[in-house]
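[Discussion] Sanity-checking designs against the backbone

I'm trying to build intuition for which residues belong where. Below is a structure token string of 246 positions. I'd appreciate it if someone posts a full sequence so I can compare it with mine line by line.
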């Protein structure tokens, strides 16, 4: 498999600076995830397994993680061998992963925004639908359709577009500039889609009950940094939750 953009930045990505993963993404993901006990869960675009491990700690019947990046999966497996949680990891494009009607929950944290056009987004949604058992749930976080281009770094990252307009255009490629904990800069590309495009692709795949869920800040995050610190997140959240059922 050729090197992916995340293979090149894997070690920096896992040491990404900024408090949003711990204080925004984690509490938001947990509140959308609901009860996991005894269920089969697939974590799509699992990266180094940050959310896969959160799922595993909630005692599912089984959890597997899939990611395109060999380097990120290598890190995920190393962490699994240090602290065994029973997670299986696969280096694969989710579009090529073959399994059907298996999982009660499909997690996808910042995966859908890597579809390079609407056709690919549609294929991803269909594939996820097929992975799920009847009445299975998609629990996703993706780029917020309400996101505006950033002039400055906020919480250690900045997202800008190609068109340099005050708003992003459906399907526009975005560049996400970040810092790692050592202060070294890195970036990746992903794609912006409107809520209509996401909903069209999810519905065409067969999903029902599509809900947009604003990301929340943990109590610990508010206590640690104070409420004013989170103003930029409230004004221009990078991510948003989306859930749907089969
Ligand atoms: C922003 S990272 C998120 C990783 C992880 N979910 C997390 O939040 O820590 C996006 C991940 O999606 C993976 N990815 C993108 N397109 C994919 C595809 N078609 N199949 C599998 N993984 C994919 C990338 O390799 C990358 O690791």
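Best answer:
Here's mine. Compare freely.
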């Amino acid at each position: 498999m050729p090197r992916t953009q995340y293979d090149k930045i894997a070690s920096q990505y896992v040491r990404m600076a900024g408090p949003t993963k711990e204080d925004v993404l984690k509490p938001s993901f947990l509140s959308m995830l609901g009860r996991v006990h005894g269920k089969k869960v697939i974590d799509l675009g699992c990266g180094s397994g940050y959310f896969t491990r959160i799922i595993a700690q909630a005692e599912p019947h089984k959890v597997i993680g899939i990611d395109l990046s060999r380097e990120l999966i290598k890190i995920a497996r190393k962490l699994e061998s240090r602290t065994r949680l029973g997670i299986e990891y696969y280096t694969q494009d989710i579009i090529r992963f073959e399994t059907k009607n298996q999982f009660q929950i499909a997690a996808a944290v910042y995966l859908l925004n890597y579809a390079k056009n609407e056709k690919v987004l549609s294929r991803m949604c269909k594939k996820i639908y097929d992975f799920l058992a009847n009445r299975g749930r998609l629990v996703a976080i993706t780029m917020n359709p309400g996101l505006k281009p950033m002039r400055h770094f906020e919480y250690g990252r900045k997202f800008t577009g190609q068109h340099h307009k005050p708003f992003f255009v459906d399907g526009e490629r975005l560049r996400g500039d970040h810092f790692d904990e050592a202060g070294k800069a890195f970036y990746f590309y992903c794609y912006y889609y409107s809520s209509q495009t996401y909903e069209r692709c999810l519905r065409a795949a067969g999903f029902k009950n599509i809900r947009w869920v604003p990301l929340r800040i943990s109590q610990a995050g508010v206590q640690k940094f104070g409420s004013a610190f989170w103003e930029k997140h409230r004004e221009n959240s990078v991510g948003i939750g989306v859930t749907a059922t089969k």
